[in-house]
Structure formats: C-alpha cells, structure tokens
Q: What sequence folds into this?
C-alpha cells in the first residue's frame, strides 16, 4: 500500500512541477497582442479568401496594425468594413466605388469556333498550355471553370461554354481574375452596366473567322458615343468608365452586339 501511495505522490509532484514550468514559460514567452488586431478581426467578414493578399482575415488584421497593409484591402467587406477598420486605426478612408467582376467574352458555344477537340483535364490552365486552348479565338473563354473552382462565394458559373458572373453574389474579391489564364475577367465599377464582351485585338477579318461575337473595330460605337467614353484602340473597343454614364447608345449601335448594357 505504501508503494502505491509513494507512486501516486511521485506522479502528483511531477505533474505539479510540469504545471509550474508551463505556467512560468507562458509568462516568459507571452506575446502581447495589440487589442486592435482583435477588433479588426471582429469587423472583417471572416471569408479568409486571400483577396487582400494575405493568408486570411487574421493575417490581414495583423498587417494593418503593423502598418504593412492599408485599411481598405478587404473587397468582400467593401467600404463599410474599410470605414470601421479606419475608425479602429484612426485613419480617414476615402469613399470606395463598389466593383464587380465581369467576364469580357461573348463567345458562347454557338458563336465561337474551335480549332480542335480537347479531351484533356477540364481546367482552363491545362487547356491553355495546349496551343492556347481549343478556341479558335486566341482570347476566347475556354469554359472549363477554373474561375468557378476558386470562387468561394458561388458567384461564377459556366453557361453555354463561357463563364458568367452572378453579380448579386460577387464580392469583387478578384480570385477569378487571377485564375483566368486568358485574362478575360476584370473588376469594373458595379454601377456601370455597359461592357465590351471581347478582348480580341486581331483584325476584323481574323475575328470573324473565329467568332461571330467578336469586336471588328468598326468604330460605330466610338462615333455615336456623346460622351467620348468609348474608343477603338488596337482593334478593340474600350470603355472609359470615368466618362461612361451607361446610356447604352454604344450597345444599341454595335452591329455585332459585342457591347452589352445590363440595365
């Protein structure tokens, strides 16, 4: 019996010693966390999407407090979150213009031609490595949904061969923009409803040979815009969103219906 008591006491003493050592180590090696980090984490959406350029919301919060990141990097939380973080950090925040992702391609299955049949891995990056993908248009959406796989908000899907953004769900995090090997997806002002659904800078003849929904640089949109908000540069119509009022005249005049107005 005495042996059992001795063993129990020994184990108890060892446990007490280790407990004291751990408590001592916790005090010695304690890292003080700035309370502002916790406050910023509380106002962040917790999406941990990485769009801000950091591993997650916690990493971003630390970066802001350490003056390594601006207060308005959270595209998911948008201006409201930026204002709250600015208040925590004592910094003024300029009014932000909400943005949205748009896929600048109208080359659906019926309109875009293929140069070969692709039977490989259904990934845009993989397909693009094989002679630029199956689409005859060098800038056409490949339609294998790499953008879909990186979107954490279920805001983009492939429909009829091209990626389409659900603007109600899109947070403008930019992950789809980074994922697209064709660089077809851009962040544009959400209140601007006009877009040119083409990125092909080939000649009109070459565009017509590969896709019936491509810009042929006819300049009709440019000639009819009352605000000079659209111009053809390098065989492609481009919108100046600083000038554009989304009147839709260019969309109505475009003979190829390459320009759309979501209004």
A:
């Amino acid at each position: 019996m005495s042996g059992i008591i001795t063993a129990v006491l020994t184990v108890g003493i060892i446990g007490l010693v280790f407990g004291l050592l751990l408590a001592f180590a916790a005090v010695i090696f304690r890292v003080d966390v700035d309370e502002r980090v916790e406050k910023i984490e509380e106002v962040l959406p917790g999406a941990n999407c990485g769009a801000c350029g950091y591993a997650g919301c916690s990493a971003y919060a630390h970066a802001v407090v350490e003056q390594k990141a601006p207060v308005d990097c959270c595209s998911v939380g948008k201006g409201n979150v930026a204002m709250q973080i600015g208040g925590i950090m004592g910094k003024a925040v300029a009014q932000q213009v909400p943005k949205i992702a748009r896929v600048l391609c109208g080359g659906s299955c019926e309109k875009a031609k293929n140069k070969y049949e692709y039977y490989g891995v259904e990934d845009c990056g993989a397909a693009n490595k094989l002679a630029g993908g199956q689409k005859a248009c060098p800038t056409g959406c490949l339609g294998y949904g790499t953008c879909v796989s990186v979107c954490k908000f279920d805001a983009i899907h492939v429909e009829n061969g091209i990626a389409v953004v659900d603007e109600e769900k899109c947070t403008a995090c930019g992950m789809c923009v980074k994922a697209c090997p064709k660089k077809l997806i851009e962040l544009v002002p959400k209140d601007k409803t006009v877009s040119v659904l083409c990125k092909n800078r080939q000649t009109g003849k070459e565009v017509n040979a590969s896709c019936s929904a491509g810009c042929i640089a006819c300049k009709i949109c440019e000639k009819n815009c009352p605000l000079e908000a659209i111009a053809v540069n390098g065989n492609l119509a481009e919108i100046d969103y600083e000038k554009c009022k989304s009147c839709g005249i260019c969309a109505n005049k475009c003979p190829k219906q390459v320009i759309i107005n979501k209004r």
